[in-house]
Predict the structure.
Amino acid sequence: MAIEHADVLRAAHLARISIDNADADRYVGDLTRILNMVDRLQEIDTEGVQPLSHPLDATQPLRADEVTESDQRDQFQTVAPEVAKGLYLVPRVVE
Amino acid sequence: MQWETVIGLEVHVQLATRSKIFSGSSTAFGAEPNSQASAVDLGLPGVLPVLNENAVAMALRFGLAIDAEIPDVSVFERKNYFYPDLPKGYQTSQMAQPIVGKGVLEILPEDGERKQIRIHHAHLEEDAGKSLHEDFAGMSGIDLNRAGTPLLEIVSEPDLRSAKEASAYLRAMHTLVTYLGISDGNMAEGSMRCDVNVSIRPKGQQEFGTRAEIKNVNSFRFVERAIAYEVERQIDILEDGGKVVQETRLYDPDADETRSMRTKEEANDYRYFPCPDLLPLVVDQAYVDHQRSLLPELPAAKRERYESELGLSSYDAGVLTAHHDTADYFEQTLEVCGDAKLAANWVQGELSAQLNRDSLPISESPVSAAQLGGLLVRLKDDTINGKAAKQVFQELWQRRFEDADQVIEAKGLKQVTDTGALEAAIDEVIAANPVQVTQYVEATEEKRGKMVGFFVGQVMKATRGTANPQQVNKLLKEKLDALL
């Protein structure tokens, strides 16, 4: 599978990672090598093998439906850049 | 050209758990902003989500109620996108392996036929927070109390063919989840919202047209209106030789139109992948069986039973089972009075009219089911007549008395069935109205029938409404006809 410069920029944008054109060129090479390895894995016959979502042989533990958390808003908000009326303030987003 | 509308719905149901899906924060509505947002909900580094057992149980009960396939294993995935009210940068959801597989929901559209709507799947996910765009000097305010609230997203197949069917589907879904007790179904508080996929195609064509997705519609009425508008819009485009663009649109109830939400932005690419923080969820047969044993009688079964066992009409059965509160009230009334038809008439008649007048839900009725049942017992055993029953009901509604018997006693409403007393009252009425008696005697047979009404009215008045009208009618006719 071939990856191009534009694909790298797009992936970086989706992940909100800031890279420049020189970075992108370098990543084209790195990512191509990774994808080539994946292509080789694709050659293996996986007929009848269940897709693996997790490598651990364990299942999800469950917790009882109980409220165990108390209000720690003031503490959490000490690290927020800006707050008002109990809200976290962020640069304006309008759809 | 004849167009056919094709609709599929994605309904988000907020599950009525006490705590969030992955943390022990409260889900109560209306708390101070961010007072119910813990480190897990805020996506702080180093936290680990742990799944709420009750959210799993509720999703399974929904699956069993729609007769769905329940897979042994389901997997949580991350749906990645950036928005300030999504602190982690992803929404924990399910995609490839949801908790509930294919199922079916029956709907009854207004003036339509019953129809089976296929459900594609239902999956568990977490809700996002809320963004407030006003009053913060160019900034947006974020409240994360809702972040992490458990949602069950129910995705239908594109089986709906009209706005009416879509709203009937939403109503049936609302009835079902409130029966199951897995959601409070409070649409004003956002407990149930839906995304509507709408497309049109020439009638007879197999292939689907290009669809538009209308986001976040939160009432039965808006669903109908949004679809009606969207269908007209798409027909206009196609008939003018244009093309419908696949896009996300928003319904504006004030302007009664849908508007494009994202035109410039690139298509969403959520890059789903299995969440490494959450292991595969495995449900064994014993657990599923246990959830099945907790299912209440479902709306469709109840409706069927009301018709076949209680002998109610299809209409009555439909109205009484539309809300589980109404069905519960009816059944409690029936248990006391033992007459299904009578209980059905009063619940749908006097009670529901009075509730409407006072804008009260049936759960807050001033007259309890036990009180109404007690009143109907007295109506049935002829202690009181229909007119007195309405008066007793009003007295109970005003909460002046404990039960019907107290009202009957205090107000002297006991029906007079003693023939001697009635005859005396009738004789008095006949003696006091010689003009009317003469008119009666001289009238034709046909007219006499109507004229009896006057005398019945007088006798009822004389007995303060406590006489048995049928008995009065019979005795009066005998006495008057004897004068002919």
